[in-house]
Design a protein that fits this description.
heterodimer, A: 1399 residues, alpha+beta, Beta-Lactamase, six-stranded antiparallel sheet, 35 helices, 51 strands, 27% strand, B: 116 residues, five-stranded mixed sheet
Chain lengths: 1399, 116
Amino acid sequence: MNLRKKTLIVIGLFLVSLILILYAASELQLKSSFSELEERNAKVDVERALNAISNELTSLGDLANFWAARDDVYAFVTTGDTDFINYSMNTGSLTNDSLHNTEINLLLFLDSYGQIVFSRFLNSSGGAEVTPQNLIEQLSFYGFCPGCLDKKSKFAGIILLSGQPMMIVTHPITNSKKDSPTMGRVVLGRFLSQKEIDKLSGIAQLNLTIYPLDDPEMPEDFRQAQSQLSYSSPVVVKLLNEESIAGYALLTNIYGNPLMILGVNASREIYRQGAKSMESFVILFSAAGLLFLLMTLMYLDRSVLSRLVNLTTSITSIGRAPELSTSLRVQGEDELASLAISINDMLAALKSAHENLVKSERRYRGVVEDLPDLICRYRSDGIINFVNASFCTFFSAREQEILGQKIDGSVWQRHLKSAGELEGKINENYPTFTYESQRKAPDGLRWILWTARGIFDQAGSLVEIQSVGREITSIREAEEALRESEERYHLLAENMTDVIHLNATDDSLHFVYVSPSIKQSGYEPSHLIGRSPFDTLVKSEDIAIVKSFLSRMLTSRREDTIEYRIRKIDGSFVWVETIANPILDGEGNAIYIACTTRDITERKKAEEARRESEERYLLLAENMTDVIHLHTPDPDLTYVYISPSIRQAGYEPSELTGRSPFENLIRPEDKEILRQSLSRLLANKSQEITEYRIKDRKGSCIWVETIANPILDGEGNVIYVACSTRDITQRKKVEAARRETEERYLLLAENMTDVIHLHTPDPELHFAYVSPSIRIAGYEPSDLVGKPAIGLFFGPEGADIIRQALLRFLETKRGEVIEYPAIMKDGSRRWVETISSPVFDREGNLIYIANSSRDITSRKRAEEALKESQQQMSDIISFLPEAIMAIDLNGKVMIWNQAMEVLTGVLAKDILGKGEYEYSLPFYGYRRPILVDMVLQPHEGWETEYLGFKREGTAVLGEVFIPSFGPHGSYLLAKATALCDEIGNTVGAIESVRDMTEWRIMEQKLERSRTELHVAAEIQRSFIPKTTPDIPNFEVAAVTIPAMEVGGDFYDFITLPHGDHGLVIADVAGKSIPAALFMALSRMIIRASAAHQSLATEVLRNANNMIASDATAGMFVTLLFGVLDGEALTLRYANAGHPTPLIFKSRDCSYEEEVACGIALGAKEGVSYEEQTVKFGPGDVAVFYTDGVTEAMNTKGELFGMKRLIGAVSKTCQSPAEEIMSRILEEVSAFREDREQNDDITLVVLKASPKAEEHALISVHSRDEEITRVSQELERIMYRAGFSGKQILDMQLAVEEAFINIVRHGYHGSYGAILIAMDLGEGRLTVKIEDDAPPFDPTKFQEPDFSADLEERPVGGLGIHLMRSLSDEMRYEYENGKNRLMLIKIKDRPSKEPHQEAG
Amino acid sequence: MQISTKSKDDVYIIEILGRMDSISSKEIEAKLNDVIEHNKSKIIIDLAAVDYISSVGLRVLLAALKKQKERDGSIRLASLQPFVRDIFKMTGFDRIFSISLNQEEAIDRFNDQARI
């Protein structure tokens, strides 16, 4: 039933009952008063009738009087004089006419004896009739005995005469003067005939009827009236019918005996009039009521109901609508309008939050779509429901073709694992599984690394799988290449291992043991054991050296090293180095020689090469011109002149002149040497030669030698220092190298095994001479001499190289080193290195070409392997996804990989070898040092240029934002480290650059989107009460912690119309924005519903109808609404499907279960709710919660559960509400461990204030200052126990007076202890004060007179007076040497005895 | 506890803030003695911010009043708070001291006396 119908019914019922009540009241009140009035009227009428009869009698009496006071009558009666009679009978008043005119029917004159002396009797129509004989008897019979009457009385009455009623009067007869004695009587009678009665009726305007009592024709009503009539109720009124009412009275005879009954019949005019007016009044009132009803309805409908319905409909339609596009129409300025406005505000906020969410969702979707990773989602039954663009592209399929397909059979689907395959590999706690798959693509095999993530429902069964694949082909390829390369190196390393061998100490040095690594040389260990190395192995030329080495070593018995050549099994010779160690027996004789032998051919070669290059550099150095420069002899050695040859170092003379070499030029390490040299020169005034290092323009280091000479003036003072400086870098290097290698060169020369061959410079290069060492190649010198070398030794490839070299010889006339494959005697080819020199005759003609050749095949092989490996490494670098560049020490680019090309748009070929910070151009747009430079040449404070700068081992990491890089600037993360060669010398630096822009922008966007959601959450949070209400006798603690930023739980406190407190806790089904919207609506409806209603069941019923009437959107809310009565300590609540509250008894923290009931709001219309009542004892606790508490989940997937919740409260049920709540939250949080909160948590803890009982014991010293502590404790305890402020002050003062009294008068200012105990219980505070001072009983203290004037007033005694006045009771005892004073204060009852401020 | 003083014409006003208990009263006593020594004949003690007074505090006020009487000076109390007013009534001090509803009234009273 909707509100409108309800209102209609309520108001209608109200009006109808009002009318009914009014009608009934008027009916009762008016009718009875009408009847009463009617009755009274009837009675009056009867009385009037009686009066009329009595008037008739009176008038009859007057007539009788006329007859009775006449002299003639008197005479007649006395004397019997008939004159008068006669006269009167004929002409006088006794004629028939005359009597008839006076309506007299009976005239009697009686004598004094009562005898009739004269009588006249007329019938009722006036005809004279004979006086009945028995007249007197009749008269007597009917109660009129004229003779019995006394002589003087007058009588009047009614009698029956012959059955006819007659009014009769009798007067005594006197003379006219009335002074004579009475003589007889006159009797007058008048029939009370119908005519008479009509006359009377006419007079009284009444409808009179008279019946004799014994009249048999008397109607029934008269009979009934007769029975009711009595002396005490002389008049009776009876309702005859609707039309008429009748009054009855008895007519009596002259003796007062009832004779006849009189009836007065009247129509019920008054009653009818009254009834009629009442009818019209009721009709009028009903009409007015109906009008009022209609107007009220119209008004209600217009101003409240229709708007409320509209509001509800709008809200519901908004809730149902897919988008939050509508807003509510606002009308007027009342509460409904403000409700609508606030809903609008909230809608706007929600809408903006929702839009932001949608936007953010779109952004994220965009990102997902654009992700290079392959993303695919499919259900556990294998139906694919999402793929991103990368996925489609990778498998060259369209999205529509994939979606809805099952994951078996097709190309892409082989890569995805079905739920069955994943079973056992993933579960709720470890939802991901990683695997690899391969795909044969047209351009080769492609690897994908998949991460399948299971999505589980609440029951823990797998519902969906999301697989994310990343193509790792390049990584795989690189790994593959690396692995291959490593294998080769390994092979190489194995082949290069030193050979370990043990030799005997005899002359032949035969092998005792040879390690298998000898196989490098082609020999098997078994071949050699037992044989002498001199047989075949050691080159014959070296046998002598080896033997002398051996004897030297055996003499010294110390480890030694020798280099010599051996022959491999293929006949080639290699240089080896053997480290030999004599193994000694107990007597110190060498029994074996342990050797480690290593192939050093390469080293030898390198040494040779170095020697040659050093020579070349020396030549270069020699060509350098010395620099002449002149300095002033100040400590800075300022340049006065510098020769232009300084340009060799890259400087211009002009920029150095006037400056000091110490500024930049000289290496910091060498400055001291130079200063010392200068001071020596100035002291000795003699030449100084110094060697030191300077930096050239590019920062490279140059060794120089300066010869400095002092230039003296006439007095012998040094005025200039003249210097000649020469670059000695090469010399230094050569010197160093030469020192090291001189001996070895010598050795080399001596042991030269190279083949020397001489050719004539003809096109075929005939051999002119071949040294015997050619035998290595299998030839005999004689085989070759005179033969053409081309085609024989040089081979076709060699021939080309030789010919080209020959042409160069003719041009440069200088020797050259060439490498070529030479042909051995057996036809095999070996790489040969030949130092080829032209030999000229004196005229300068080329006569021979002199060659010194050696076998470099093994070196060549190693070189080639190395070169290949290097190529591979360089390829790896080149194809690494990370952008990489490297520079050498001169700042020239060595490496610029493909990723770098992509990042910068600069191709490697355009930048390799470029220096001068060329590589910074693509990043910064100008030349500057970058991170890689910082590794080689750091400058001050460079770290600060980078965000998040840090060091990782030798590498440095930093991020920069370059506004000019990329369309909107870029965040680049760079990592740089020094590059070292195998010896550990720095040869350059390498830097990798990663573009973090997208990442950073993503982070920023994510942050912004979070902020927006946060705003929505803030708005929602503002609905939650900021503070808990002050409910008398209850402590309240409440909290709600949303799981997402926008939650669906809420609690609320509502102040109800009668001052009670409403409590709401609710959980909206669903999450996030729709739940939040619904939550706000529910909250408002509950508030609106509770605004005029404080019956919980009604509030819920109304709220449910409002929510349910249109809530087809399937939203519902579980909600508990309770009304708290702080005075009665009760909670009356109704529950709409919410978890029942937990009630804990304070006594033993026992838990009592409440009955669950009610259906969630919005689920079904027209539901009613049952009321539950909780009666709290002091300290009892009620815990209200949402299922977010009990269903909090830990990492193992277990739920927190009721048991734990009850446990948490049981442990703390004696604590304040706030602590109980904290305890629950702590336990939930501890239980959940690292797991995220999965649902909103809302808790309301209600605690009936515990019984106020407290004890405090304070021990203080007898010092005034201590009173502060005591006062504070007193205030704390009393405040908590609910004492009023005035009572607290009273007690503070009383205690202070007692305390000060003890301090000053008990201890007299000396040191003593005072123990103060405060006990609170049963509404009273008892403060016990104990001290050890001499006994003193303040209760016995005689109070001084405080009414005395100022001068006589005592200064003491005030304190005790105050103690006594301000406490409710003061007791004292002395026990065990202690004074014990007790001050008691009884707590006021604020409700019954309101505290009155004095004055 | 704080004591602040000010003068208005020849009237010297002492305003006390806080509790007049056995600890703070010593300070008040020193201040009052100082003021009386300086021959201030008209003193108003404003107790608007005093919500508690103990017998020690009462004695300090009484001693000051006696001293001042000896010197033909006078002391007026102003703005007694409910609790303090109760204590004054309870001890009969309200009959000894001249008490005004507030500072302004106290000043007026002094001026009235001056006119008479």
